[in-house]
Amino acid sequence: MKVQALLQANSERLKALYGGEIPLARYESLAEIFRGKFGREPEAFVSAPGRTEVIGNHTDHNLGRVLAGAVNLDTLSCVAAREDMRVILYSEGYEAPFELDLEDLEVRAEERETTYALIRGVAARLSQLGYRIGGFEACVTSTVFKGSGLSSSAAFEVLVVAIFDSLFNGWTIDPKLNARISQYAENVYFGKPSGLMDQMASAVGGLVMIDFLPKEAEVEAVKYDFAKKGYVLCVVTAGGDHGDLTAEYAAMPIEMKAVARALGREVLAEVTEEELLEALPRLKNAVPDRAILRAFHFVDETRRTVQAVEALKRDDLQAFLAVEKASGESSWKLLQNLYVPGRDNQEIPLALEMSRRILGEKGAWRMHGGGFAGTILAFVPISMFEQYRERMDSVFGAGATVPLSIRPEGAVCIRE
């Protein structure tokens, strides 16, 4: 594989993927690592993007709506097929490779919450659906760092589906199916009860509104260039430890679904605000108060998602920013996924309050992703961005503030 020539032939596409400059050295270095590890030329580069949740905090698991986008940071692999069923995958930051045999596709308890589980889970689901699988060799690097709030796990899952697709299935797997296969691997094999938003945004690409209520999630592309309107979309890694928070994350969908069941439904997407209000006397004795507040967040947030998209369609950026701030307030007051119980350090609320005081009426800020730790999302006027970044980084560390661009494609394969 002549990497430089391959990238030059795909230069316009790559510029769009990465928001300007092609990371030529990154591709060449990965190909060189592959040659050193496996003693042969790679067949293809496969890339899957991280994602940003623009609005729709904790709506996907109750089949609401979300506005999300693929971003210019990605998980990138250099790959080649094997003739047997062994997978050998070297990942940056790990000295030893991940090795497994796909002759065995059963769930393994000892692999829960590991890379092995994700690879085996993807392969198992592809096989169940009638797609071809096989062994492969890969070297992987990522700018979607763990804890970045841009869903490194979903990017990796979508990447693995795309590797099997590119090497064995002729690039025939629909992006929405890629997302569902990825979610299956995370839910069943990895053991994390996630919704579908992260995988769908990464697999489909672009800025998209996703309605999860229909049996086949409806995905609507939304075209908008924030930079042309004078704003930077960025995330700030406030920090905090996600460890021991599994119960806190799991409680949100569980409590929301408990409210839905108390009203004779399966998920809150089937419940209206009026029904919630009318049922309050009964709900007060059936579920915890926090569950009711979280249910109100859900119905409001799903409505806000539609309002945000409508504002972008009519090019009313100020209305969009107002909806973004309302989303952040709701996560803080109703969803209650900012403060970590029993911890003195509250990084997420501090980052949001700093944003409010720095930006005033000139931008928007909100919780980003699961909550309790990790990142916030901000829309910052270009004229204020350097000041904003300097002040946020002075508190949360150099490089905490990361500007993003929306990537127009989801998972991609680049080969000769």
From TrEMBL:
Coiled-coil residues: none
Protein's UniProt keywords contain Membrane: no
GO terms of biological process kind: galactose metabolic process
Cellular component terms (Gene Ontology): cytosol
Domain Galactokinase N-terminal: 34-80
SUPFAM superfamilies documented for this protein: GHMP Kinase, C-terminal domain, Ribosomal protein S5 domain 2-like
Keyword Ion transport listed: no
Keywords in alphabetical order: ATP-binding, Kinase, Nucleotide-binding, Transferase
GO MF terms held by the record: ATP binding; galactokinase activity
Gene3D superfamilies linked to this entry: 3.30.230.10, GHMP kinase, C-terminal domain (3.30.70.890)
Domain of life: Bacteria
PANTHER family: GALACTOKINASE-RELATED (PTHR10457:SF7), MEVALONATE KINASE/GALACTOKINASE (PTHR10457)
Family: Belongs to the GHMP kinase family. GalK subfamily.
Protein name (record): Galactokinase
Species of provenance: Candidatus Pullichristensenella excrementigallinarum
Lineage: Bacteria, Bacillati, Bacillota, Clostridia, Candidatus Pullichristensenella
